Amino acid sequence: MIEVKNLHKKYANTEVLKGISLEFKSGEIVGVVGENGAGKTTFFKCLTGLENFEGEINYNSGILKNEIGFLSSEPYFLSKITGKEYLQLLCTARGINIKDFEEKNIFDLPLNKYAENYSTGMKKKLALTATLLQNNNIFIFDEPFNGVDIQSNVLIKEVLLKLKSLNKIVILSSHIFSTLTETCDKLYHLKNGVIINSATKENFATIEESMKEQTLSKKIDSLFN
Amino acid sequence: MKYYFLLQYERFKRFTTDSGINFLLAIIIAVIGFIILSHLIFGKINLAAYVYSASCVFFVNLLGKEDRNNFLKTIYNKSSYRKIRLIENNVVAFPFLLFLIYMQLYWIGFVLIVLVSIFSLFNSVKGFNYAFPTPFFNRPFEFIIGFRRFFGLFLLSYILTIIAIQVENFNLGIFALLITIFTCVGFYNKSETAFFVWIYNLNATQFLQQKMVAALLFYSMLSFPIVISLIIFNPDNWYFTFVFYLIGILYIFLSLLGKYAYFPSEINVIQGFAIGFTIIFPPLLLIIIPIFYSKSKQKLNLFLK
Hints:
The complex is a heterodimer.
Chain A: E1 2-11, E2 14-24, E3 28-33, H1 40-48, E4 54-59, E5 68-71, H2 83-93, H3 120-133, E6 138-142, H4 150-165, E7 169-173, H5 177-183, E8 186-191, E9 194-200, H6 204-216, H7 219-224
Chain B: H1 2-18, H2 23-44, H3 48-62, H4 66-75, H5 78-102, H6 106-119, H7 142-149, H8 151-166, H9 170-186, H10 195-198, H11 204-233, H12 238-261, H13 269-280, H14 285-300
């Protein structure tokens, strides 16, 4: 279990996360929703240890950082590295030895081509494959569905459910609400660095409603008046 | 177009101030540094005018990157775009031209200006996309990437070694070794994103040790054909060859540790000068390397636990 207590994050004088407290349990898929700039990515970076923060993040089974597979919203690729070498790099970094990557290539990626030349969706699929091959216990996926084709979308949803069945902790964000409702057990609504709402599967509609209400209100009218 | 150049000026200013150095001071240092380096090139290298012109073309070529130029094409019409490229290329070449004039090399200066003006019509050549295998299996990525990117320079250094042996010119052989050394040093000049450090299940010491062992091993693989050939064909000078090989290791460690000493930021102007001073006075390596090692551990501790 991961326990987040009173997490704060500041960039210069701007407070991006304002006292977040949450829990993530094994065998659970948790979604974090919120508009652009709400603090989702910063929150994920604090969880992974890529950003420092104030507050507490407790994990009860070892060193948290070493068990997280992190898919960032825009994965970065080193130049002149093939897809296979990228997978190898991320696996060996975690002490995982895999001989045949083609066998694990569920998205049929051209692994012998340079990853930097992949399309946006292919890059995302490659980075996702790497996190899955690392044999992690915790998965943080920032926008895993962005830019990927419909077939892969289906595949990713199935992967998420499989991770849940393997008793892993899965945390994700997505701007496509249906992908969250189909996969998540719990949703948190993050706005301006604060969790303003949470819901379990039965009450997802209330989160969607409240988001719609807050986002739309009279904004569209003001645009055309 | 005027706004574009104003923005470039602002960017340049921000680059220096963000590096923690006063803008005016940066310009003074850059001008003095440029003059010293130019004198060094002309004082120490045969065919210096060509090496000097090639350096200028190298910098001009950086402005020809396809992405950057495609962006410019989308925001300016054809004639403005051409003017921007022409002005930029000539601005970069201008200091080189001034020095060539100072050296009374008028024809070379003229040819250089014509060349960089012609270059403004083209984008720089993109590397070919075939991912050829490297001998560096799957250890830390710097050598895989660097080898693919600068394959031509290694080929050149090996060819120069063969020529050096044929014409019995030991200095040329050492020059070939220096090409290999400084190409490997360059592999570490850009920081990877924090993610590529964070992924490791190692502490900072283990991480640095792994990187240093890989650097030592792979640098040796690349330089041994030159080192061994020079030792076999110039046995009297074996210790010179060996000392250069060892100095190469130190510079590669300096570059590697310099990268992580300021991680995830890039090395800034002041640290760049510190490294520069080691070239003028190599014993400084023995002071700066341990400092960088200790700073690297501090910086990496933020990402590795």
